[in-house]
Amino acid sequence: MAKVTFFSGQQLPLEMHKVRIIQKLNLLPIEERRKAMTEAGYNTFLLQNVDVFLDMLTDSGVNAMSDQQQAAMLIADDAYAGSATYTRLYNKLVELFGMSYFLPAHQGRAAEHILAKSLVKPGTFVPMNYHFTTSKAHVTEMGAEVLELITDAGLQVTSDELFKGNFDIAALQALITEKGAEAISYVRIEAGTNLIGGQPLSLANIRDTTQVCKDHGILTVLDASLLADNLYFNKTREPQCAEMSIPEITRAIADCFDIIYFSARKLGFGRGGGICIRDEAIYKQMRALVPMYEGFLTYGGMSVREMEAITVGLDETMDEDMINQGPLFIEHMVNELDARGIPVITPAGGLGAHVDAMRFLPHVPQNQYPAGALASALYIASGVRGMERGTLSEQREPDGTEPMANMELVRLALPRRVFTLSQVNYAIDRIDWLYQNRELIGGLKFIEEPEILRFFYGRLEPIGDWVDQLTAAFRRDLGDSL
Ligand code: F0G
Fold it and tell me: Could you give the CA distance from residue 304 to residue 319 in angstroms, rounded to a whole number?
C-alpha cells in the first residue's frame, strides 16, 4: 500500500497488490438483512456469513494470503515429527526475533494457556498495558490477578497521543515498590491494544518498561499478535525508528523481551500460533505441555500447510508496503468518519475502526446495549458485520448485577489485504446515513442470556418498533438501493 497524492490534491491509499482469487459476495436487500438479524437474535456473532456483505467482525484467521504463501503451502512436509516445514518456520522466527527456542501452538490462546500454566503463580500479579479477553482468562484461571497499567491517554476515546497503548511505567514502579518483584509472575506487553482500539506502543516505552523489569529480575512477555501494525506505527510515528528498517525495528523490540508469543491468525497472514523463548530452562519448563495439549513439538496442532504460509507471511510482515495496508485503510475510514462528525476512536490505530456508540446513541442507556444496537442497525442498513465491544461483552457479577463497560464501541475490523477502497467507502457511507438517522435507533434486551460469554451466544430483540422505522427511513432515502 502506498499513500498517493492524486491530481485533485486528495491523498488516498493505493493498493500495492492485485487480486487474483476472488470470492463472490452477497448483498441481500434490506428486508432480508432484517430477517437474518432477527434469526441471529440481534447478535452479529450468530449471523451466517453467507448473509454478510462485508465481514468486519475480526481480523483473525481471515487475512488474505499472497501467491507466495499459497505456493509455499504446496511444498509443506507432512511429518508428525521432524518436519522440514517446522525447521523453515523455526529458522524464520530465529532470524526475525533472535530467540533460540520455539514452541508451536494451534492459536494464540493456546500459547497463553501454556505460558500461564507454567509461569503464573497463584496469588501473584500479571501487569499488562491492557488485557485481552483470552490472556486475562488464562491468568485468572491460574489464580493470579491481571493489572492494567495503561497511561491515562489510553482510555480517552479521542486524543492526539500517537501511542495510546503505552505502559504506565510509574505505575509499574509503584507496584514493584508496594508488592515486591516476587509478587509479579511476569509483565505482559500487548503490541497493539486490541480492546481499546488497536492502539500502538512506542519502542521507547517498550525499552523503558522492560528495563524496569530487568532491573528487578521480572520476566517480560510480548504478545506479538498485533505486531505488524505496531511495526508500521513505530516506523511512521516514533522518532527513534525513522531511520530503521522494519526488520531492525522488529529486532529492537524483540531484544527487550524474554518471551514472545503470537496468534498467527493475525501475525503472518495464516492460522496458528506459538511461543519464542530466549532461555533454555524456561523452554524446558514449557516444553512438556505442548505434546500434552497441542501436538508434537514440530507442529503443535497447526497444519503444516499453514505453517509454510506463516513462514512466508512473516517475511511479508517485514515489507512496509504489505503491513501498511491495514493501518492506511483504517486511517482513511477513521478520518472520513471523523470529518462527517461521527464519533470514532482517534487517532486511528490498527486492527480496525472503532465507532463510539456512547456518543453515537446518547439516548440509548448502557443497560440497553448501545454498541450492540448500533452493530445490529449497521448490519440492517448495509450488510456490514461489526463486533460489539461494550457492556454486552462484559459478564454479570456473581450477585447478578451488570457492570457497565468503560467504552461502548462497535469494532469494524479490516482484515489485511481483503477489502478494496470502494468497499470501505461503502461502509463509511452507510455509517454516515445511520448517523443522520441515529435518533431512530433504539436499544436491545436479552431474550436468552447465557451465564458465560454471553456476547458469543446470547439472543436479543429490539425494544419498541425502531427497526420498522429504520427500514422505512432507508427506503425513503435510498429507494430501491440494496
Ligand atoms: N492476543 C491478542 C492481542 C488477540 O487479539 C488475540 C485474538 C489473541 C491474543 C488470541 O489469539 O484468537 O489466535 O487464540 N484476537 C481475536 C480478535 C480473537 O477477534 O480480536 P487466538
Answer: 24
User: φ, ψ for residue 65 (rounded to 5)?
Assistant: -90, 155
Catalytic choice (133, 158, 177, 420): 133
What is the Cα–Cα distance from 254 to 333, expressed in whole angstroms? 31
Q: Nearest residue CA, atom 21 of ligand 1?
A: 108
Domains and CATH numbers, the chain: 2-59+323-478 (3.90.1150.10), 67-321 (3.40.640.10)
The model's pLDDT over 177-236, given as tens digits with 9 standing for 90+, comes to 999 999 999 999 999 999 999 999 999 999 999 999 999 999 999 999 999 999 999 999
Hey, what's the cell of 227? Answer: 505486531
Question: What pLDDT is recorded for position 100?
Answer: 98
CA of 60 to the centre of ligand 1 (A): 7
Q: Which residues pair with 23 in a beta bridge?
A: none
Q: Would you say 410 and 378 are in contact if contact means Cβ atoms under 8 Å apart?
A: yes
Cell readout for 31 is 428486508
pLDDT of 384-424, one tens digit each?
A: 999 999 999 988 888 999 999 988 999 999 999 999 999 99
Query: Which residue owns the Cα nearest ligand 1 atom 15?
Result: 60
**C-alpha 130 – ligand 1 centre gap (Å):** 13
